[in-house]
Design brief:
Elements (H helix, E strand, L loop, with lengths): L31 E8 L1 E2 L8 E9 L2 E7 L4 E6 L4 E3 L9 E8 L2 E6 L4 E4 L4 E3 L8 E8 L2 E6 L8 E5 L4 E3 L14 E7 L2 E6 L4 E4 L4 E3 L10 E8 L2 E6 L5 E5 L4 E4 L7 E8 L2 E6 L4 E4 L6 E5 L5 E7 L5 E7 L5 E7 L4
Parallel strand pairs: 1-26
Antiparallel strand pairs: 2-29, 3-4, 4-5, 5-6, 7-8, 8-9, 9-10, 11-12, 12-13, 13-14, 15-16, 16-17, 17-18, 19-20, 20-21, 21-22, 23-24, 24-25, 25-26, 27-28, 28-29
Protein backbone atom coordinates (compact mmCIF):
# COMPACT_ATOMS: atom_id res chain seq x y z
CA UNK A 1 0.00 0.00 0.00
CA UNK A 2 1.47 3.34 -1.02
CA UNK A 3 1.36 6.45 1.08
CA UNK A 4 -0.54 9.20 -0.68
CA UNK A 5 2.06 11.44 -2.28
CA UNK A 6 1.63 15.13 -2.90
CA UNK A 7 2.91 16.69 -6.09
CA UNK A 8 5.55 18.56 -4.07
CA UNK A 9 3.10 21.37 -3.33
CA UNK A 10 3.98 23.67 -0.43
CA UNK A 11 2.29 22.93 2.88
CA UNK A 12 -0.31 25.35 4.14
CA UNK A 13 0.61 27.10 7.36
CA UNK A 14 -1.03 25.14 10.14
CA UNK A 15 -1.67 28.14 12.34
CA UNK A 16 -0.23 31.48 13.31
CA UNK A 17 3.45 30.98 14.06
CA UNK A 18 4.13 30.59 17.75
CA UNK A 19 6.10 33.42 19.27
CA UNK A 20 9.74 32.61 19.92
CA UNK A 21 10.68 33.38 23.49
CA UNK A 22 14.38 33.36 22.62
CA UNK A 23 14.47 36.99 21.52
CA UNK A 24 17.56 38.82 20.40
CA UNK A 25 20.68 38.21 22.41
CA UNK A 26 24.16 39.67 22.10
CA UNK A 27 25.79 36.69 23.80
CA UNK A 28 26.52 34.53 20.81
CA UNK A 29 26.80 34.37 17.03
CA UNK A 30 25.40 36.61 14.34
CA UNK A 31 23.06 35.67 11.57
CA UNK A 32 20.74 36.86 8.85
CA UNK A 33 17.39 35.84 10.30
CA UNK A 34 15.28 37.07 7.39
CA UNK A 35 13.44 34.19 5.65
CA UNK A 36 15.35 34.42 2.37
CA UNK A 37 16.60 30.84 2.22
CA UNK A 38 15.22 27.68 0.66
CA UNK A 39 11.58 26.61 0.60
CA UNK A 40 10.55 23.17 1.78
CA UNK A 41 7.56 21.24 0.41
CA UNK A 42 5.52 18.32 1.66
CA UNK A 43 7.26 15.01 0.87
CA UNK A 44 4.10 12.94 1.31
CA UNK A 45 0.72 13.15 3.00
CA UNK A 46 1.21 12.65 6.74
CA UNK A 47 -2.40 13.18 7.82
CA UNK A 48 -2.66 9.53 8.90
CA UNK A 49 0.82 9.06 10.38
CA UNK A 50 2.07 9.33 13.91
CA UNK A 51 4.89 11.67 14.84
CA UNK A 52 7.98 11.39 12.64
CA UNK A 53 11.32 11.58 14.39
CA UNK A 54 14.22 10.28 12.31
CA UNK A 55 15.32 10.09 8.67
CA UNK A 56 18.27 8.29 7.06
CA UNK A 57 19.08 6.58 3.81
CA UNK A 58 21.75 5.28 1.48
CA UNK A 59 20.93 7.61 -1.41
CA UNK A 60 18.23 9.28 -3.50
CA UNK A 61 16.33 6.02 -4.10
CA UNK A 62 16.59 4.55 -0.59
CA UNK A 63 15.31 6.76 2.24
CA UNK A 64 13.82 5.66 5.58
CA UNK A 65 11.67 7.74 7.97
CA UNK A 66 10.83 6.44 11.45
CA UNK A 67 8.33 7.55 14.09
CA UNK A 68 4.92 6.46 15.32
CA UNK A 69 3.10 6.71 18.63
CA UNK A 70 4.10 5.66 22.12
CA UNK A 71 2.39 2.30 21.57
CA UNK A 72 3.39 1.49 17.99
CA UNK A 73 6.34 2.46 15.84
CA UNK A 74 5.99 3.40 12.18
CA UNK A 75 8.47 3.28 9.28
CA UNK A 76 8.15 4.74 5.76
CA UNK A 77 10.37 4.09 2.75
CA UNK A 78 11.12 6.05 -0.41
CA UNK A 79 12.38 4.10 -3.44
CA UNK A 80 13.11 7.08 -5.64
CA UNK A 81 9.55 7.22 -6.98
CA UNK A 82 7.05 6.90 -4.13
CA UNK A 83 6.75 6.49 -0.38
CA UNK A 84 5.24 3.38 1.21
CA UNK A 85 4.74 2.16 4.79
CA UNK A 86 6.82 -0.74 6.09
CA UNK A 87 5.60 -3.47 8.43
CA UNK A 88 6.89 -2.83 11.96
CA UNK A 89 6.76 -5.68 14.50
CA UNK A 90 3.66 -5.33 16.67
CA UNK A 91 4.25 -3.83 20.09
CA UNK A 92 7.42 -1.92 19.11
CA UNK A 93 6.88 1.60 20.43
CA UNK A 94 7.79 4.99 19.01
CA UNK A 95 10.93 4.80 16.89
CA UNK A 96 13.18 7.82 17.26
CA UNK A 97 16.29 7.43 15.09
CA UNK A 98 17.68 5.35 12.23
CA UNK A 99 21.11 4.57 10.82
CA UNK A 100 22.56 1.86 8.64
CA UNK A 101 25.37 0.52 6.52
CA UNK A 102 23.59 -0.29 3.28
CA UNK A 103 20.22 -1.07 1.67
CA UNK A 104 20.03 -4.39 3.54
CA UNK A 105 21.48 -3.37 6.91
CA UNK A 106 19.58 -0.61 8.75
CA UNK A 107 18.79 -0.12 12.45
CA UNK A 108 16.10 1.97 14.15
CA UNK A 109 15.81 2.59 17.90
CA UNK A 110 13.16 4.03 20.18
CA UNK A 111 11.32 4.09 23.47
CA UNK A 112 11.29 1.23 26.00
CA UNK A 113 14.41 -0.37 24.58
CA UNK A 114 13.07 -0.71 21.04
CA UNK A 115 15.60 -1.86 18.45
CA UNK A 116 14.57 -3.10 15.00
CA UNK A 117 16.73 -4.20 12.06
CA UNK A 118 16.13 -4.21 8.30
CA UNK A 119 17.85 -7.04 6.42
CA UNK A 120 16.66 -6.07 2.96
CA UNK A 121 13.46 -8.08 3.29
CA UNK A 122 11.79 -7.32 6.63
CA UNK A 123 12.09 -5.32 9.83
CA UNK A 124 12.62 -7.61 12.84
CA UNK A 125 12.86 -6.80 16.52
CA UNK A 126 16.26 -7.13 18.21
CA UNK A 127 16.66 -7.73 21.95
CA UNK A 128 19.17 -5.13 23.14
CA UNK A 129 18.87 -6.21 26.76
CA UNK A 130 17.22 -3.04 28.06
CA UNK A 131 13.82 -1.44 28.46
CA UNK A 132 15.23 2.06 28.78
CA UNK A 133 14.43 4.75 26.22
CA UNK A 134 16.88 4.82 23.31
CA UNK A 135 17.32 8.08 21.38
CA UNK A 136 20.21 7.68 18.98
CA UNK A 137 22.08 5.11 16.88
CA UNK A 138 25.24 5.34 14.77
CA UNK A 139 28.04 3.04 13.78
CA UNK A 140 31.43 3.04 12.11
CA UNK A 141 30.86 -0.48 10.76
CA UNK A 142 28.31 -3.32 11.02
CA UNK A 143 30.33 -4.77 13.92
CA UNK A 144 30.88 -1.41 15.64
CA UNK A 145 27.48 0.12 16.39
CA UNK A 146 26.56 2.49 19.23
CA UNK A 147 23.12 3.19 20.71
CA UNK A 148 22.55 5.90 23.33
CA UNK A 149 19.64 6.91 25.54
CA UNK A 150 18.30 7.44 29.02
CA UNK A 151 15.31 9.06 30.69
CA UNK A 152 15.28 12.77 31.47
CA UNK A 153 13.76 11.85 34.83
CA UNK A 154 16.38 9.13 35.35
CA UNK A 155 19.76 9.10 37.01
CA UNK A 156 22.39 8.13 34.38
CA UNK A 157 22.74 7.82 30.59
CA UNK A 158 22.85 4.46 28.82
CA UNK A 159 25.19 3.45 26.00
CA UNK A 160 25.07 0.10 24.20
CA UNK A 161 27.69 -1.31 21.85
CA UNK A 162 27.03 -3.95 19.17
CA UNK A 163 30.07 -5.96 18.07
CA UNK A 164 28.29 -7.88 15.35
CA UNK A 165 27.05 -10.65 17.60
CA UNK A 166 25.86 -9.16 20.91
CA UNK A 167 24.99 -5.92 22.67
CA UNK A 168 27.08 -4.82 25.65
CA UNK A 169 26.13 -1.99 27.97
CA UNK A 170 29.06 0.38 28.48
CA UNK A 171 28.56 2.28 31.71
CA UNK A 172 29.77 5.86 31.84
CA UNK A 173 32.25 6.45 34.62
CA UNK A 174 30.71 7.73 37.84
CA UNK A 175 33.91 9.70 38.44
CA UNK A 176 32.55 12.29 36.01
CA UNK A 177 29.72 14.68 36.88
CA UNK A 178 28.51 14.69 33.23
CA UNK A 179 27.23 18.26 33.59
CA UNK A 180 24.44 16.70 35.65
CA UNK A 181 23.12 15.11 32.45
CA UNK A 182 21.17 11.88 32.75
CA UNK A 183 20.45 11.10 29.07
CA UNK A 184 22.34 11.01 25.78
CA UNK A 185 20.24 11.91 22.75
CA UNK A 186 22.49 11.24 19.75
CA UNK A 187 25.77 9.59 18.84
CA UNK A 188 27.90 10.16 15.74
CA UNK A 189 31.48 9.78 14.59
CA UNK A 190 34.04 10.18 11.81
CA UNK A 191 37.74 9.54 11.17
CA UNK A 192 38.00 7.04 14.01
CA UNK A 193 36.42 9.34 16.63
CA UNK A 194 32.97 9.05 18.22
CA UNK A 195 30.97 11.57 20.24
CA UNK A 196 27.60 11.55 21.99
CA UNK A 197 25.57 14.55 23.16
CA UNK A 198 22.75 14.92 25.65
CA UNK A 199 20.88 16.94 28.18
CA UNK A 200 22.21 19.98 30.05
CA UNK A 201 25.01 20.52 27.53
CA UNK A 202 26.51 17.06 27.91
CA UNK A 203 29.20 16.07 25.37
CA UNK A 204 31.24 12.88 25.70
CA UNK A 205 33.83 11.22 23.46
CA UNK A 206 34.78 7.55 23.27
CA UNK A 207 38.53 7.18 23.82
CA UNK A 208 38.65 3.49 22.99
CA UNK A 209 37.99 2.27 26.50
CA UNK A 210 35.55 4.73 28.10
CA UNK A 211 33.37 7.78 27.47
CA UNK A 212 35.14 10.98 28.51
CA UNK A 213 33.28 14.21 29.19
CA UNK A 214 34.12 17.22 26.99
CA UNK A 215 33.75 20.86 27.99
CA UNK A 216 31.54 22.79 25.55
CA UNK A 217 32.12 26.31 26.79
CA UNK A 218 30.04 28.88 28.67
CA UNK A 219 26.89 28.43 26.59
CA UNK A 220 26.87 24.65 26.74
CA UNK A 221 24.21 24.95 29.42
CA UNK A 222 21.16 23.51 27.67
CA UNK A 223 20.36 20.22 25.95
CA UNK A 224 22.31 19.15 22.87
CA UNK A 225 19.99 17.08 20.70
CA UNK A 226 21.93 16.15 17.56
CA UNK A 227 25.33 16.37 15.85
CA UNK A 228 27.00 15.85 12.46
CA UNK A 229 30.21 16.80 10.69
CA UNK A 230 32.45 16.42 7.67
CA UNK A 231 35.72 15.56 9.42
CA UNK A 232 37.08 15.01 12.93
CA UNK A 233 38.03 18.69 13.13
CA UNK A 234 34.76 19.99 11.73
CA UNK A 235 31.76 18.83 13.79
CA UNK A 236 28.58 20.70 14.73
CA UNK A 237 26.19 19.90 17.60
CA UNK A 238 22.86 21.68 18.02
CA UNK A 239 20.30 22.03 20.79
CA UNK A 240 18.70 24.47 23.17
CA UNK A 241 15.06 23.92 24.10
CA UNK A 242 13.89 27.52 23.61
CA UNK A 243 17.00 29.47 22.58
CA UNK A 244 19.23 27.69 20.09
CA UNK A 245 22.69 26.41 20.93
CA UNK A 246 25.30 25.57 18.29
CA UNK A 247 28.59 23.96 19.29
CA UNK A 248 31.50 23.67 16.87
CA UNK A 249 34.43 21.26 17.29
CA UNK A 250 37.80 22.07 15.67
CA UNK A 251 39.50 18.79 16.45
CA UNK A 252 40.61 19.88 19.90
CA UNK A 253 38.05 22.20 21.49
CA UNK A 254 34.26 22.58 21.51
CA UNK A 255 32.97 26.16 21.36
CA UNK A 256 29.25 26.79 21.94
CA UNK A 257 27.29 29.84 20.82
CA UNK A 258 23.74 31.01 21.46
CA UNK A 259 22.93 32.80 18.17
CA UNK A 260 20.74 35.83 18.66
CA UNK A 261 17.10 35.32 17.81
CA UNK A 262 17.40 31.62 17.00
CA UNK A 263 14.80 29.22 18.41
CA UNK A 264 15.60 25.86 20.02
CA UNK A 265 17.24 23.35 17.68
CA UNK A 266 16.87 19.59 17.24
CA UNK A 267 18.35 18.70 13.88
CA UNK A 268 21.57 19.11 11.91
CA UNK A 269 23.01 17.55 8.78
CA UNK A 270 26.24 18.58 7.09
CA UNK A 271 26.80 17.85 3.42
CA UNK A 272 29.74 20.25 3.04
CA UNK A 273 32.23 21.92 5.41
CA UNK A 274 30.62 25.34 4.97
CA UNK A 275 26.98 24.22 5.04
CA UNK A 276 24.96 22.72 7.87
CA UNK A 277 21.20 22.43 7.37
CA UNK A 278 19.57 22.85 10.79
CA UNK A 279 16.03 22.55 12.13
CA UNK A 280 14.14 23.20 15.32
CA UNK A 281 10.93 24.19 17.02
CA UNK A 282 8.01 25.92 15.28
CA UNK A 283 9.09 24.55 11.89
CA UNK A 284 12.38 26.46 11.88
CA UNK A 285 14.99 25.47 9.28
CA UNK A 286 18.05 27.33 8.09
CA UNK A 287 21.38 26.97 6.34
CA UNK A 288 24.21 27.60 8.80
CA UNK A 289 27.85 28.24 7.93
CA UNK A 290 30.05 26.65 10.64
CA UNK A 291 33.04 28.65 9.44
CA UNK A 292 31.53 32.13 9.74
CA UNK A 293 28.72 31.40 12.21
CA UNK A 294 26.20 33.06 9.89
CA UNK A 295 22.86 31.53 8.95
CA UNK A 296 20.06 32.14 6.46
CA UNK A 297 16.59 31.21 7.63
CA UNK A 298 14.29 29.29 5.29
CA UNK A 299 10.66 30.03 4.56
CA UNK A 300 8.61 28.37 7.32
CA UNK A 301 5.98 25.98 5.96
CA UNK A 302 4.84 24.18 9.13
CA UNK A 303 4.41 24.97 12.79
CA UNK A 304 5.36 21.44 13.82
CA UNK A 305 8.79 21.04 15.39
CA UNK A 306 11.47 19.66 13.07
CA UNK A 307 13.26 16.75 14.75
CA UNK A 308 15.65 15.43 12.09
CA UNK A 309 17.23 16.41 8.77
CA UNK A 310 19.13 14.25 6.31
CA UNK A 311 20.62 14.87 2.88
CA UNK A 312 20.66 12.27 0.11
CA UNK A 313 24.05 13.31 -1.29
CA UNK A 314 22.42 14.50 -4.49
CA UNK A 315 21.22 17.88 -3.25
CA UNK A 316 17.86 16.92 -1.76
CA UNK A 317 17.22 17.25 1.98
CA UNK A 318 14.46 15.69 4.05
CA UNK A 319 13.12 17.11 7.31
CA UNK A 320 10.74 15.29 9.64
CA UNK A 321 8.97 16.12 12.88
CA UNK A 322 5.62 16.53 14.55
CA UNK A 323 4.05 16.34 17.99
CA UNK A 324 4.91 13.50 20.34
CA UNK A 325 1.86 13.47 22.58
CA UNK A 326 -1.65 12.21 21.88
CA UNK A 327 -3.05 13.04 19.35
CA UNK A 328 0.17 12.42 17.44
CA UNK A 329 0.89 14.38 14.27
CA UNK A 330 3.69 14.03 11.77
CA UNK A 331 5.32 16.18 9.14
CA UNK A 332 7.65 15.08 6.32
CA UNK A 333 9.28 17.80 4.26
CA UNK A 334 11.59 17.88 1.27
CA UNK A 335 13.97 20.56 0.06
CA UNK A 336 15.06 20.17 -3.53
CA UNK A 337 18.46 21.34 -4.77
CA UNK A 338 18.70 25.15 -4.74
CA UNK A 339 21.19 25.40 -7.60
Amino acid sequence: MEVSVSTRAPLMLLALLAACDGGKDDSGGAGDTSPTGATWVEAFDTSATGALSGVWGTGPDDVWIVGGTSEQGEIYHYDGTSWSPAVVPEGVGLLVWAYGFGPDDVYAVGVRGAVVHWDGTAWTQVDAGTTRDLWGVWGAAPDDLWIVGGEVSGTWPITLHWDGSAFTEVTLSTDQNLHGGVALFKVWGIDGRTWAVGDLGLIVEWDGSQWVEQFGGQWANDDFVSLWGTSADHVVAVGGRNNGRIARFDGTTWNTEMPGGMVGLNAVYMGAPDEAVIGGIYGFTATYDPVTGEYVEDTIVTQYDIHAIWGDGDGTYYGVGGTFTDPYHGVALEREPTN
